[in-house]
Design brief:
Number of domains: 2
Number of helices: 7
Largest sheet: 7 strands, mixed
Shape: elongated
Bound molecules: flavin-adenine dinucleotide
Distance between the termini: 24 Å
Number of strands: 22
Strand content: 25-35%
CATH superfamily of the largest domain: FAD/NAD(P)-binding domain
Oligomer: single chain
Helix content: 25-40%
Mean pLDDT: 92
Length: about 300
């Protein structure tokens, strides 16, 4: 069976920064497994500016930032189109790529699988399951990677900073959201984001407003919302359900390691309840900036190097 010192699951900013840190420490026998066709993680499809300030002191778009990460790790063993299916009972990884399914073992494993927005179903939003309902990640992939325009006047649900990222994605594609709604009395992002949405994008932000159901037959036709106990319809042709991030937990939802909510529970040294499995980056549950995830991954590289010394 193929064996390595370290296997990193996920080739986003955290996984790639960890690989860089490990190589700097002389730990070259390290493999990154990434299920997408190219490494880089979420920034690959975030076409707006905002990446790199924390660690590079330069602000780049997501795709440029991801390209720089790929260039910096081009000489490393980063395997794309390679999905980790699960941990076996023996503690090895079952991995699928175009050649089929195989097993890989390692002295140390690192979960760097990131996070994702909760779906409409997870948020108990009722109504029709029709095309045009998606989260920010899918919207960005359609707009920035596939150059599509999935709708013209969607409703944006949520007011976290990622919700404003979907607003910028809409603007990039020439899409005009009809409104942004948020359940609470305040925005989840800083107040000036809301002002920007209204003044710069012409999109009204409705507080204390909850999405109850999506209506439509072939495509979204309206969203039923409730404000202070009163229900009404907002005509729209799409709904973007944003934020409420949960760890990408497919690999450990079976009780493999202890969890803290949906995320792996880790020590300050990023170690999970299994001593040979670590976790780093947004899989830890919070949506941090890419730069912060990378700084933490570098710290983890030092810890692993010390551990294996
Ligand atoms: C809409 C949006 C806008 C953002 N804007 C900014 C911004 O402007 N500036 C900023 O600094 N940050 C921004 N962020 C946050 C930034 O994208 C994250 O902090 C960063 O991507 C986290 O890196 P990560 O490596 O932990 O996770 P990810 O980037 O999610 O990477 C995880 C990788 O793991 C892979 N993976 C998952 N499961 C498996 C598996 N089973 N097998 C193999 N591979 C797997 C995924 O394909 C993915 O490539 C934004 C995030 C979002 C969602």
């Amino acid at each position: 069976m193929e064996h390595h010192k370290i296997v990193i699951i996920g080739g986003g900013p955290a996984g790639l920064a960890l690989a860089m840190g490990l190589h700097d420490k002389g730990l070259g026998d390290c493999v990154v497994l990434e299920r997408e066709q190219e490494a880089g993680g979420i920034p690959r499809h975030c076409g707006h500016l905002g990446f790199g300030f924390y660690n590079r002191r330069r602000v780049l778009t997501g795709p440029k930032f991801a390209a720089k990460l790929r260039a910096a790790t081009a000489q490393f063993d980063v395997r794309t189109r390679t999905t980790v299916l699960d941990f076996t009972l023996r503690g090895t990884l079952r991995v699928q790529n175009e050649k089929g399914i195989s097993e890989i073992s390692a002295d140390r494993y690192v979960l760097a699988t990131g996070t994702r927005e909760s779906s409409g179903a997870a948020r108990l939003i009722g109504g029709a399951r029709v095309p045009g309902v998606m989260n920010t990640g899918t919207l960005q992939q359609l707009v920035y990677l596939k150059h599509q325009k999935p709708f013209l006047k969607p409703l944006i649900v949520g007011s976290e900073w990622v919700s404003f990222s979907s607003l910028m994605t809409c603007r990039h594609a020439g899409i005009t959201p009809v409104a942004m709604i948020t359940e609470g009395p305040k925005l989840d992002a800083p107040i000036y984001f809301g002002l920007g949405a209204r003044l710069a994008f012409g999109v009204p932000v409705k507080r204390n407003t909850k999405l109850i159901a999506v209506h439509g037959t072939k495509q979204v036709e309206a969203a039923e919302v409730e404000t202070n106990g009163k229900r009404r319809m907002i005509a729209c042709d799409g709904v973007v359900i944003t934020g409420k991030f949960r760890a990408e937990n497919a690999l450990f939802s079976n009780g493999l390691i202890e969890r803290d909510g949906t995320s792996p529970k880790v020590t300050q040294q990023f170690r999970t309840s299994k001593p040979n499995i670590y976790a780093v980056g947004n899989v830890l549950g919070h949506l941090e900036t890419a730069g912060l995830c990378m700084v933490r991954a570098r710290t983890l590289a030092e810890m692993i190097a010390g551990d294996l010394a």
